From TrEMBL:
Gene3D superfamilies: 3.40.50.2300, Winged helix-like DNA-binding domain superfamily/Winged helix DNA-binding domain. This is OmpR/PhoB-type domain-containing protein. Transmembrane segments: none annotated. It comes from Sphingomonas sanxanigenens DSM 19645 = NX02. GO terms for molecular function: phosphorelay response regulator activity; transcription cis-regulatory region binding. Residues 127-226 form the OmpR/PhoB-type domain.
Length: 243
């Protein structure tokens, strides 16, 4: 995936480049948006990581220019050193797809970027399989396997598992998970979700020795993390980056 990093801090920009290149992405760093405009004429981009300070108070103009230059399919993630709720809201309303704090753990950042790469690939190859560690999801046949061994799951369990893996390290609310299974059905009891989660955890063996950790978030929902990421203490009141 082609990634541009717009970040004025040379050291942090280099760190991001190293993380993304190690994950197999083509990453280039730029000190500001103007440098990006001058050095990438005619080239395509899948993702831009941009320092929110680069907006200089003209957030909508900067993000609008990026989409106009590189297309509506471009994914834009805004980075801030110490993001406040007002910064997150402003970035998302200006057209960003996500907002992350610069203190994010490398393993979590890689998981977020890999999830975007899978969506980009799936859009170009709608029948493709998707791999997450040793888990392989056959999208066309709604089948999941681990190290080549098929795991018997129902259609609902497959959908739920794929939703979790596509949103690695991202807290997902009960409402969002229920909607992924049954659409907008406000009468669906949440204990149905808990039952599905319990069965899914057992069938897929979602534990660190198999590469992933499924964590319930009290009063909110669930989150699936790569085993290498440090689990954060999360409550319903700290979901500013969740869907």
């Amino acid at each position: 995936m082609n990634v541009a990093i717009v970040q004025k801090d040379n050291n942090y920009r280099k760190t991001l480049e190293d993380i993304l290149r190690a994950a197999g992405h083509a990453a280039r760093g730029f000190a500001d948006a103007q440098a990006l405009a001058e050095q990438r004429p005619g080239e395509t981009l899948d993702l831009v990581l941009i320092d929110w300070a680069q907006s200089d108070g003209a957030a909508e103009s900067v993000l609008g220019w990026l989409r106009g230059r590189f297309g509506a399919a471009l994914t834009i993630i805004v980075l801030s050193p110490w993001p406040k709720d007002v910064d997150i809201v402003e970035a998302l309303q200006a057209g960003a797809d996500d907002h992350l704090g610069q203190s994010i753990a490398p393993a979590v950042l890689r998981a977020r970027i890999d999830a975007i790469a899978r969506r980009v690939h799936a859009a170009d190859h709608p029948t493709a399989s998707e791999r997450f560690g040793a888990f392989l999801f056959d999208i066309g046949n709604s089948q999941v396997s681990y190290r080549g061994e098929d795991i018997p799951v129902t259609a609902k369990e497959f959908t739920l598992a794929l939703t979790l893996f596509r949103n690695l390290a991202r807290p997902l609310s009960r409402a969002a998970l229920l909607e992924s299974l049954w659409g907008r059905d406000p009468g669906r009891p949440t204990r149905t979700l808990d039952s599905h989660m319990s069965k899914l955890r057992a069938k897929l063996g979602l534990r660190p020795d198999r590469g992933f950790r499924l964590t319930p978030i009290y009063g909110f929902g669930y989150r699936l993390d790569p085993a290498g990421a440090q689990p954060a203490s999360i409550t319903a009141g700290s979901m500013s980056e969740s869907r």
